[in-house]
Design a protein that fits this description.
The chain contains nine helices and four strands; from the N terminus they run βαβαββααααααα. With 234 residues, it is an alpha+beta fold. A four-stranded mixed β-sheet has the order 2-1-3-4, covered by helices on one side. Helix 1 links the parallel strand 1 and strand 2 (26-30). The termini are far apart. Residues 90-215 form the GST C-terminal domain.
């Protein structure tokens, strides 16, 4: 049994998709990031960066002590190695998969996240910031589209690289992107969207969903006003 500390964000969806694809038993322990659950001592003991998702694997491959892990990319690699699923063992295929996984972790996720923030959540609309992150998100969509013109999935076969990227494409309209402008990406998106495991993963998160725009002033401060004292950057 894997404890999944989770909230239905793109990074949270990455992990539920993998768990559903691999058929691993898990239980969701909701971390309501609008209420400050991410700052509770028991969660910080697992995720010192005060970010979800995080997991505790109580049935490790070596039969040893439980493994606690934070950072969605690291979790995907760990679970793939635990199960032998969705991360090739062939040297070249593995390298391609990790390349695209880290491309998402270092590029697509942060840039799309800033896109969301300045376009939807920032109290002051800053045209330069909105345009800058919308354009960079579009550039990254173009990178994916170019790769997917050559391969059915990012690294060839369906893998943790696709699982990592897909949830960040789901809100493409909010990011100011039209999938019709990226036909190969659109084909890939639709293929993943229809996978039964992906449908189950999003259904698992549905009970925790809420409007992303109806935050109270306190919730907004918790989400976006973190300080060094609370474990975030000013």
């Amino acid at each position: 049994m894997i404890d999944l500390h989770y909230w239905p964000t793109p990074n949270g969806h990455k992990v539920t998709i993998f768990l559903e694809e691999a058929g691993l038993a898990y239980r969701i322990k909701p971390i309501d990031i609008t209420k400050g659950d991410q700052f509770k001592p028991e969660f910080l003991a697992i995720s010192p960066n005060n970010r979800m998702p995080a997991i505790v694997d109580r049935e490790t491959a070596d039969g040893g002590a439980p493994v606690a892990l934070f950072e969605s990319g690291a979790i995907l690699v760990y679970l793939a190695e635990k199960t032998g699923r969705l991360l090739p063992t062939d040297l070249h295929a593995r390298a391609r998969t990790l390349q695209w996984l880290f491309w998402q972790v270092g590029g697509l996720g942060p840039m799309a996240g800033q896109n969301h923030h300045f376009a939807k959540y920032a109290p002051a609309k800053i045209p330069y910031a909105i345009e800058r992150y919308r354009n960079e998100t579009g550039r990254l969509y173009g990178v994916m589209d170019g790769q997917l013109a050559k391969t059915p999935f990012l690294a060839g076969e369906y893998s943790i690289a696709d699982i990592a990227c897909y949830p960040w494409i789901v809100p493409h309209e909010d990011q100011g992107q039209d999938l019709d402008d990226f036909p190969h990406l659109k084909r890939w998106f639709e293929a993943i969207h229809s996978r039964p495991a992906v449908i189950r993963a999003y259904a698992a998160g549905a009970p925790y969903e809420r409007s992303r725009l109806d935050f109270t002033a306190l919730e907004r401060e918790i989400l976006f006003g973190q300080t060094t004292e609370r474990g975030g950057a000013k």
